[in-house]
Automatic annotation (TrEMBL), chain A:
SUPFAM superfamilies in UniProt: ClpP/crotonase
Phylogenetic placement of the source organism: Bacteria, Pseudomonadati, Pseudomonadota, Alphaproteobacteria, Rhodobacterales
InterPro entries cross-referenced by the UniProt entry: Benz-CoA_dihydrodiol_lyase, ClpP/crotonase-like_dom_sf, Enoyl-CoA_hydra/iso
A GO term, aspect molecular function: lyase activity
Alphabetical keyword list: Lyase
One of the protein's GO biological processes: fatty acid beta-oxidation
Native organism: Sagittula salina
Protein's recorded name: 2,3-epoxybenzoyl-CoA dihydrolase
Enzyme Commission designation: 4.1.2.44
Gene: boxC
From TrEMBL, chain B:
Gene3D superfamilies (alphabetical): Ribonucleotide Reductase, subunit A
EC id: 1.14.13.208
Keyword tags: Oxidoreductase
Superkingdom classification of source: Bacteria
Protein name stated in the entry: Benzoyl-CoA 2,3-epoxidase subunit BoxB
Catalytic EC class: oxidoreductase
TM region positions: none
Gene Ontology biological process terms from the UniProt entry: phenylacetate catabolic process
CC annotations in GO: cytosol
Length: 553, 483
C-alpha cells in the first residue's frame, strides 16, 4: 500500500453513491461501481464495499448535516436489483494487511455511529429501505439506521453470515446492535448470527431484526410515505440553506509532515513520533451566528475541526508507524474561548449545534485512535474548552511550570469551559472529566467551579488536570526520555493497554462495539482459522472450505 | 418389503418412497396439498380444468414402461413423489468427499446450501406453469394443447418432488420454504419468482416452444448436475425428473420445427424464395424465418442468464462439497476434485472479449453453460436441415454468448449477435433487427387463433409426424369442456 488514502472527497465525483435531495427527504442510493475499488485485485460486486465506498458515505453523511440542514429524513436504498448490500468485500479483506483490516473496521464503525447518531444530534433520521439480500456489512449498514423497512417478496432477507461463511464476526457493530439496539433475544440472535441465509418476511419483524415488513407491491410507496411522515413529525427546525464544505487548505511534505491552515502535523519517522500542533484563532470571533454562517467553512471552529479530523484519519491509515502522537496547541486561549462561546450560547442554532456535535465526533475519533498519545502543555498554548478536552483524551499530559529561559510566550495555562462539562461526552456516555475522576467525583465539581479561569501549572496539577508539571530544568530531558521510552514499547501491548485504560466507567453500545466486538474481531483477524493460508477468509471464493483448528482457546 | 419401483397409490399422494409408513412427512404433505390444488385451480382457466386431457401418468420409475396414458381432468391428476431407484453402494462423484458413500441424510454443514439449491430449482417448476397459464386459449391444435398440459402437470409434479425433499429433510425451515414456493408467482410484483427468465411472459405459442426448447434445457442441465449430487435422495429425484424433462424438450424442438415447416411449405407453395420477403410471407399466415431467429435470440439469451455468474463462489462451494456436479460428471476423465485445475472463461477486459484461465472450481457455471450451448446446438442443426431440404437459403444460428445478456460479465456491455461489442446507441438503433419488436409480437399474436377441431392445425404450424402414444392424426387429445 504505497498510495495515500485520501479522506477528502469531491462530491461531484462520487463513484458509489447517488443522492437526490427532495426537500426534507434525501434519497441516498448505494450503487457501488464494481471497478471502483480502492486497491487492485478485487471487484466490488453485489454492492459490496471497501474503504473507498465508506469514505464516500462518511462524506455524504457529513455534508448532509452542513450542506443540507433542510433534510430531516434520509432514505438509504440500493441501486442494484435483488441485492441491498453484500457487506464488506471479502476478497478485499482476504488480501488486506491486518493493519488495514483493523483501520477499515474502525472507520466504518465510526461512520455507522455517525449516521446513527444523526437523528439525536441533528434531527436527521436515517431509514434503511431494504429490497433484496441485505447481508453482513449490508445489514450492519441497515442496523445503524434509525428505522429498517424490509420488503416481503419472499426472497429479500437480512442476514449476518460472517460466522458460518467466513469464520469472522459481523464486526461493524452487527453483533452488538442486534442485542443492544434491536434487543433481539439472545437465543434468537444466536440462531440469526449462525444461519447463513438469515431471516426474511414476517419473522424478521417478529424477531425485531427490522421495524417493518411491507408487501412488495406497496413497498416503494410505503417507504416514501414513511419518509414524509417522519419528516412531518420531525422537531428539527427548518433551515433554508446550509453552508458549503470546500476543499481543505492542506499541503503534504516529503517527510510525512502536513500543513493545514490551523494544524501542523510534524512527522518524525525515525523517532516513530508525530507532533500535532493546533493553532488557535487569531482574529476575533464572528459577531453572531449570521456572521458565522457567512464565514461558513472558514469559521475557525469548523475549519479546525475538519483539519484535525482529516489529520487523524490520514495518520491512522497512511502513517501506521508513527506510533506516538504528541498533541500541542499554540494561541490565545481567551480568543479561542470567545469563538467557542459564540457556539455554546447559540446551541439551538442549527450550525452552532452541528459544529459542536462535530467536535464531539472528532474528539471521539481521538479517543479510539490506537496510538500512544501525550499532550504537552507548553507556554503560549491554548488548551482551553474543546481543546482542553484533548488533555483528557490522551494517555498522559505534561505541563510547563514557571518561566522558561528565553521563552517569552505567555505562561502555560489550562482553561476549562462549559464545553468540558457536558456537550462532548465520550463513547461511555460520560464527559472526559467524569471518566477521569471516576473515583473522585468531587474533583469534577471542583473543576467546574473554576471554569473560565486560566489554571497555571501548580493549580492544574492540584486540580488533577495534567499528569505532571515540569520546570525549565527538567522539561526537556523528562519529555525526551518519556517519548523515547514510549516509542520503544511493543505497539500491540500499548494499544491494548491504552484502549483498556481510556474507557473507564459504564459500558454503552458504543464502547461494546469499539471494545468488546472490535477486540474479538481483531483477534479472529490474526487467527489461522480465518486468515491462515487455509483459513476461511483466504479460501473464500475458491470453493474449498476453510480448515479449522478445532481446539477451543 | 417396500416396492421401490412401482408407484404406490395407497395414499393421496402416489409415491415410491413408502409415504404410507412415513406418517410425519405424509401429514406435512397432506397439509400442503390443498394450497397446491388452490394454486392450480386459480391458475388454469376453468374450462380446461374440467376438460378431459389425454395425459401420461407415472406408474413406475422403471425406465421401460414408466407411464400409462389415459384421459384425466387435470385437477385430478395424481401428482406424486417419484425417485429413481437407489443405486447400491453409490459414491459421491466429486469434490472433497469424492469416493465416500453418498449421503442418505442431509449433512448438517451443507444443509443451507442444499436447501437453497432445492428451493431455487423448485421455484422454477411452478414458475413456467404460471407463465404458460393462458396458452390453452390459443392452442393451435388439440395435440399441442395436450402437450402444453402434459408439460404443465409434470412441472407441477417437479414442484412436488422438490417439496417432498424440503418436507422430508429440512424440517420447519423446509415447510416454510415449501409454503413460499406457492406464494411467489411469475411476474408478480408482490413476490416474483427467484430467477429472471421465470418472470418473463410467455405471450404466444412460438415463445412456448422456444421456452421448452431453450429454458427447459437449462432445467435439464441443472437437473443433470443435481443428479450427480452426493445427497442421494436429491440425485434420485432429479434422475427421475430428467425422464419427464426429455418430453418437454421434445415438445419444444418439434414445435419450433413444425412452425418452420409450415413457413417453408407456404413459401414453396407460393414460389417465394427470399426468406426476407417478410410481408408476403406473413400474409400467408405463417411466421417468417427472420422473426423465428429473433425469437430464438431472445429465449436463448434469457436461458444463458439462468446459468448465473461465469465465475461463482456458490457454484464452487456446491461442487467442492459434493452437492452439485458437472454435466455427465461420472463420464469426465479427471480427478473430479479440480483443486489445481483451470478452465477457460470468456470475459470483457478493456473493451475486448478475451479468454482467461480461471480456477476450474470457480468456473463450474461456465462449464455447465458451455455444455448447454453444445446441447442446444443439436436441435438448431435439425431445424436447419428442414430449411436446407426445402431449398430456401437461410440458416438459424445461436447468437454469441455476449449478445443481450443481463447476468454475468457480458451484462456490462452491448454486443451484436456475432459478438462484436457495440455502443449503446448502436444497440438501441439495431435492437429490433435482432430481438422481436412490438410489431413482430403483434403479428405473432394475430396468428394465435385457437384451432380445437381434432386433426386440424392453425395455419402457422405443421402437423406432427407421429401422434402421442402412437395415436392417429385426428385423435381427440383433449375432450374440451365448453361451458
Ligand atoms: Fe421441470
Ligand atoms: Fe420442464
Amino acid at each position: 500500500m504505497t498510495k495515500r488514502i485520501e479522506f477528502q472527497v469531491d462530491p461531484a465525483a462520487y463513484r458509489h453513491w447517488k443522492i437526490d435531495y427532495d426537500g426534507a427527504v434525501a434519497n441516498l442510493t448505494m450503487d457501488v461501481d464494481e471497478n471502483g475499488g480502492l486497491f487492485d485485485g478485487y471487484q466490488l460486486k453485489m454492492n459490496s464495499y471497501d474503504l473507498g465506498v465508506d469514505i464516500e458515505l462518511a462524506d455524504i453523511v457529513q455534508r448532509m448535516r452542513f450542506e443540507h440542514p433542510e433534510v430531516k429524513v434520509v432514505v438509504m436504498r440500493s441501486g442494484k436489483d435483488r441485492i441491498f448490500c453484500a457487506g464488506a468485500n471479502i476478497r478485499m479483506l482476504g488480501g488486506a494487511k491486518h493493519t488495514h483490516k483493523v483501520n477499515f473496521c474502525k472507520f466504518t464503525n465510526e461512520t455507522r455511529n455517525t449516521f446513527e447518531a444523526a437523528e439525536e444530534d441533528s434531527g436527521q433520521k436515517y431509514i434503511a429501505a431494504v429490497k433484496g439480500a441485505c447481508a453482513g456489512g449490508g445489514y450492519e449498514l441497515a442496523l445503524a439506521c434509525n428505522h429498517i423497512m424490509l420488503t416481503d417478496d419472499s426472497s429479500s432477507s437480512v442476514s449476518l453470515p460472517e460466522v458460518p461463511l467466513l469464520a469472522v464476526l459481523p464486526g461493524t457493530g452487527g453483533l452488538t446492535r442486534v442485542t443492544d439496539k434491536r434487543r433481539v433475544r439472545r437465543d434468537r440472535a444466536d440462531v440469526f448470527c449462525s444461519t447463513e441465509e438469515g431471516v426474511r418476511g414476517k419473522r424478521a419483524a417478529e424477531w425485531r431484526l427490522v421495524d417493518e415488513v411491507i408487501p412488495n407491491s406497496k413497498f416503494d410507496e410505503t417507504v416514501d410515505r414513511r419518509a414524509r411522515e417522519f419528516a412531518a413529525a420531525s422537531t428539527k427546525a427548518d433551515v433554508a440553506q446550509g453552508i458549503a464544505l470546500g476543499p481543505l487548505d492542506r499541503t503534504f511534505h516529503e517527510d510525512g509532515s502536513v500543513t493545514y491552515s490551523t494544524v501542523e502535523v510534524q512527522a518524525n519517522r525515525a523517532g516513530r513520533t508525530v507532533t500535532i500542533t493546533i493553532k488557535g484563532p487569531e482574529a476575533k470571533p464572528p459577531a453572531d451566528m449570521t456572521a458565522f454562517e457567512a464565514q461558513g467553512d472558514q469559521a475557525w471552529m469548523l475549519r479546525a475541526a475538519r483539519e484535525v479530523d482529516d489529520a487523524i484519519l490520514h495518520l491512522r491509515l497512511n502513517e501506521p508507524e508513527l506510533g506516538l502522537m504528541v498533541w500541542k496547541t499554540q494561541g490565545d486561549a481567551e480568543v479561542l474561548l470567545a469563538h467557542e462561546a459564540l457556539l455554546m450560547t447559540n446551541r439551538d442554532h442549527w450550525l452552532a449545534n452541528e459544529v459542536l456535535q462535530y467536535w464531539k465526533r472528532v474528539l471521539k475519533r481521538v479517543d479510539v485512535t490506537s496510538r500512544s498519545m501525550v499532550a504537552l502543555v507548553e507556554h503560549g498554548s491554548c488548551f482551553a474548552g474543546v481543546l482542553a478536552e484533548l488533555l483528557f483524551a490522551v494517555d498522559r499530559s505534561y505541563m510547563m511550570e514557571d518561566e522558561f529561559e528565553g521563552d517569552n510566550r505567555p505562561i502555560a495555562a489550562v482553561t476549562l469551559s462549559d464545553a468540558n462539562f457536558g456537550p462532548m461526552p465520550m463513547a461511555n456516555g460520560l464527559t472526559r472529566l467524569a471518566t477521569r475522576f471516576l473515583g473522585e467525583p468531587e474533583a469534577v465539581t471542583a473543576a467546574e467551579a473554576r471554569k473560565d479561569v486560566g489554571l497555571e501549572a501548580e493549580e492544574a496539577e492540584a486540580a488533577g488536570l495534567v499528569t505532571e508539571i515540569l520546570d525549565d530544568i527538567d522539561w526537556e530531558d523528562e519529555i525526551r526520555i518519556f517519548l523515547e521510552e514510549r516509542a520503544s514499547f511493543s505497539p500491540d501491548a500499548m494499544t491494548g493497554m491504552e484502549a483498556n485504560l481510556r474507557f473507564a466507567g459504564p459500558e454503552t453500545m458504543e464502547t461494546r462495539i469499539f471494545g468488546r466486538l472490535t477486540a474479538w474481531q481483531n483477534w479472529i483477524f490474526i487467527r489461522p482459522n480465518a486468515v491462515g493460508e487455509n483459513g476461511a477468509l483466504q479460501r473464500y471464493g475458491t470453493g474449498v472450505r476453510g480448515e479449522y483448528n478445532m481446539e477451543r482457546v | 418389503m417396500l416396492d421401490l419401483i412401482n408407484v404406490s397409490y395407497d395414499t393421496q399422494i402416489p409415491n415410491n418412497v413408502g409415504l404410507s409408513s412415513d406418517k410425519k412427512v405424509l401429514k406435512a404433505l397432506e397439509r400442503w396439498h390443498p394450497g397446491y390444488i388452490n394454486w392450480w385451480n386459480d391458475l388454469i382457466p376453468q374450462n380446461f380444468q374440467e376438460s378431459m386431457v389425454y395425459l401420461r401418468t407415472a406408474v413406475s420409475v422403471d425406465p421401460k414402461g414408466w407411464a400409462k396414458f389415459d384421459y384425466v381432468k387435470m385437477p385430478e391428476y395424481r401428482w406424486g413423489v417419484l425417485l429413481a431407484p437407489q443405486v447400491e453402494d453409490r459414491r459421491i462423484p466429486m469434490g472433497e468427499h469424492a469416493g465416500e458413500l453418498a449421503w442418505q441424510e442431509v449433512p448438517g454443514e451443507y444443509r443451507n446450501m442444499l436447501k437453497r439449491l432445492i428451493v431455487i430449482q423448485g421455484d422454477t417448476e411452478p414458475g413456467s406453469v404460471e407463465q404458460q397459464r393462458f396458452l390453452g386459449l390459443t392452442a393451435p391444435s388439440l395435440y399441442d394443447m395436450r402437450n402444453l398440459f402434459q408439460v404443465n402437470v409434470e412441472e407441477g409434479r417437479h414442484l412436488w418432488a422438490m417439496v417432498y425433499l424440503l418436507f422430508k429433510y429440512f424440517g420447519k425451515d423446509g415447510r416454510e420454504e415449501a409454503d413460499d414456493l406457492l406464494r411467489r408467482s411469475s411476474g408478480s410484483e408482490e413476490a416474483p419468482r427467484m430467477l429472471g427468465a421465470f418472470n418473463e411472459e410467455t405471450p404466444d405459442w412460438l415463445s412456448f416452444f422456444m421456452f421448452t426448447y431453450f429454458t427447459d434445457r437449462d432445467g435439464k442441465m441443472q437437473l443433470e448436475s443435481l443428479a450427480q449430487s452426493g445427497f442421494d435422495p436429491l440425485s434420485r429425484t432429479c434422475r427421475f425428473m430428467l425422464t419427464e424433462e426429455a418430453h418437454h424438450m421434445f415438445v419444444g424442438e418439434t414445435g419450433v420445427g413444425r412452425t418452420i415447416q409450415a413457413t417453408l411449405d407456404a413459401m414453396n407453395k407460393a414460389g417465394i424464395t427470399d426468406p426476407y420477403d417478410i410481408n408476403k410471407i406473413r400474409e400467408m399466415g405463417v411466421i417468417d424465418l427472420p422473426t423465428i431467429q429473433k425469437k430464438l435470440n431472445l429465449h436463448y439469451t434469457l436461458s444463458l442468464d439462468l446459468f448465473g455468474q461465469e465465475v461463482s463462489t456458490n457454484a464452487a462451494n456446491a461442487f467442492n462439497s459434493g452437492i452439485k456436479g458437472r454435466y455427465m460428471e461420472t463420464r469426465i476423465d479427471d480427478d473430479h476434485r479440480l483443486q489445481g485445475d483451470t478452465y477457460v472463461v470468456r470475459t470483457v477486459k478493456n473493451g475486448l472479449i478475451v479468454a482467461e484461465d480461471v480456477p476450474a472450481l470457480t468456473a463450474i457455471n461456465m462449464r455447465l453453460r458451455d455444455d448447454y450451448v453444445r446441447d442446444a446446438a443439436g436441435g438448431v442443426g435439425r431445424w436447419n436441415k428442414l430449411i436446407e431440404k426445402s431449398g430456401i437459403d437461410f440458416r438459424l444460428t445461436l447468437p454469441h454468448e455476449a449478445f443481450h445478456r443481463q447476468i454475468g460479465v457480458f451484462a456490462a456491455i452491448k454486443a451484436d449477435p456475432e459478438g462484436n461489442i457495440i455502443s449503446d446507441d448502436e444497440w438501441e438503433k439495431r435492437r429490433d433487427e435482432w430481438l422481436p419488436s412490438k410489431a413482430d409480437g403483434d403479428f405473432i399474436t394475430s396468428l394465435m387463433k385457437p384451432c380445437f377441431e381434432p386433426g386440424k392445425f392453425a395455419s402457422w404450424i405443421a402437423a406432427p409426424k407421429v401422434g402421442i402414444d402412437n395415436k392417429p392424426g385426428d385423435f381427440e387429445y383433449v375432450k374440451l369442456h365448453m361451458a
